Structures are given as structure tokens and as C-alpha cells.
Amino acid sequence: YVYHSSKWMVAGNADSPVPPRVYIHPDSLASGDTWMRQVVSFDKLKLTNNELDDQGHIILHSMHKYQPRVHVIRKDFSSDLSPTKPVPVGDGVKTFNFPETVFTTVTAYQNQQITRLKIDRNPFAKGFRDSGRN
């Protein structure tokens, strides 16, 4: 994708896909009752564009569009769960898509307010905050 005239447009051929990874929430395995009692947070989820990542981060290509999915998996289906294996298929698995979560990965922000917000909220952007760089 490329951002042109205030909209995203398809640009060229896609990169070769990377082996898919699944984020297994740190509160797993838990009952539905447990999940309903608290906010489900994904603040431990880490994204990277490093295809050689060995830390279990979710690998994404820059300038590509992504649709996150949430899989609810019945406990007896979850014995084979692994970040590097496909999500099991069957009656014990329900997948939810939220269209409002579609996003496009970028390498640089064009909007200074977004740049400032990202620097202010990113605990790893200390160098940007200390030097006043954007």
C-alpha cells in the first residue's frame, strides 16, 4: 500500500508472506467467567518487522494492511496451542473479526500530532523524548 491523496492505495506486488504467528494471551487458559470479569488487554503483544525475530513477536511487513482476529478456543481444543502452529479448526473454536481494528503498517508518520502521540506513549522512545526529536 501507499498513502496518496489522503487515502491508501494498492501499490505493486505484495512481499512474500512470513510464517504466521499466533499471540497466546498470558491469561490463557481461563474460563469464560474469568474473561468476563476483567478487561482483556493486549498490552504485552509485541509487533516487529524483523523477519528473523526469535522473541515470539508478531511479524508484520511495512506498508501492508492487517485485520486482527480474536480466537476463543474451548479448553479441550487448546492442548496443541503454539505461537507457530495454526489455530485449531472445529466446533470448539470461534473466531471474531472487528472491522474497526483494520490497520496499515507504516515506516513514518505524516501527521505530527500522531508522531508526538506515538513518542509520548511508547516506553521505548526515550531517545526521542530526551532530545526533542520527532
TrEMBL record:
Q: Which Pfam families match?
A: T-box (PF00907)
Major place of residence: nucleus
Which keywords annotate this record? DNA-binding, Nucleus, Transcription, Transcription regulation
Task: Read off the InterPro entries from this record.
Answer: p53-like_TF_DNA-bd_sf, T-box_DNA-bd, T-box_sf, TF_T-box, TF_T-box_CS
Report whether Transmembrane helix shows up as a keyword of the record.
Answer: no
For this UniProt entry, the molecular function terms from Gene Ontology, in alphabetical order, are: DNA-binding transcription factor activity; RNA polymerase II cis-regulatory region sequence-specific DNA binding
GO biological process, alphabetically ordered? positive regulation of DNA-templated transcription
Give the UniProt subcellular location, in the record's own words: Nucleus
> SMART domains of this UniProt entry?
TBOX
T-box domain location, by residue?
1-130
Q: Which GO terms describe its cellular component?
A: nucleus
Q: Which SUPFAM superfamilies match?
A: p53-like transcription factors (SSF49417)
Q: Which domain of life is it from?
A: Eukaryota
The molecule here is called TBX15
Q: Which organism is it from?
A: Pan troglodytes
Q: What is the lineage of its organism?
A: Eukaryota, Metazoa, Chordata, Craniata, Vertebrata
Encoding gene per record: TBX15
